[in-house]
Amino acid sequence: MLQPYRELAAVPRVPALLIWASLGRLHMTGTPLAMSFLIAGWTGSYTLAGVIGAALLIGIGVSGPVRGRAADRRGAAGLVMVTGVGYGLGMIVLAFVPTWLPGSWWPVMAVGAFAVGLFNPPVIPVSRAIWPRMLSGSALNSAYTVDATLTELMYAVGPLLAAALVAAVNPEMSLVISGALAMLGAAGFARMLSVAGQSGPVATSDQAKPRRAGLFTVPGVSASLLLSFFLVAALLMVDMTIVAWARNVGEPILAGVLGAVWAVGSGIGGLVAGGLRGAPRLTRRVVLNLLGVAALVPVLPPVFDPASPWLIGLVLLFGGAAIAPAVAAANARLGELAPAERRTEAYGWLSSASTAGFAIALPTSGFLLDHGGPSVAAAGAVVMVTLGVLLAARIPAAKPEPEPVLS
Hints:
This protein is mainly α.
């Protein structure tokens, strides 16, 4: 079971790249929680908190394919560095808007959040695109699984750190730290790309030709992107549900603790799945994810009131074990389907699909929380994963193309 991990660790620079790729996305895991507390306290509305959070994520989603295409054509290291600085500074400015303006000025915050999102550093698409250039076989599958598992661990650390800062200091400081982490993570990842020789563009025989429509004509690519949309939307709806319940009971730190428990469960599931031989079964993994999310509905208010944090934590621990395996299988499948010279662009579109899922989930979960309560919001997440199951069953398997030579 450990053999794939040994093969992975034996490749120079890969472990360091995995670590910095995870640290480079740490800021994203705590930002929704910090921003939710900040905006809900500023405006008194979860719905408006969702709208402003969605504006940030729409900006991130719009920039995703553009950043991916630029990385494919011109290289990634400099791009990651410059955008990381711009995003981090912008996030720090956003943190203080509620102290400068009254809550009725929330549209200004929404516009600013969208603008900051445009500068999000493309750590995620770049990191996912380089694994097939450096690895193959079981080591490649393990890389995607470790990548997803480390991401889940970041979802344990990020929300817990954000919640601790909210409880100990204030939401503004939590968002400031998020911006600082964005700059630090982008700088470290950019440096490792250069050290590993992965900072340049992908050389192809037709690189100078315009890249018109074609990526979405590849069978399974569109379905893979939609699958990520629904999976991410469901995950964030659950996260928002936990945040709202913790805020309602007057214990904001519980949001971070329960989020960490959820991520730990995912990490354990990912580590087990990463050591398995053979191609991952995507549909089965998404079905298990559905069961984990559905188990939350009966343990939350108003279905179960007052809810027990111990019971919620237990459900999250076991239900979370299906998250990383499902995400890893979905990411690997897209990497197999996309042409090698457009893989970063494909993962840029994946980031866009994921952030679109965030953008839909934030106001949707806010509305369901305002008008139905946590269990109703969790039921909305169940609907999202159910649609994901239907899509997963339609995505074909594919063999990866030969990798082009790097310039």
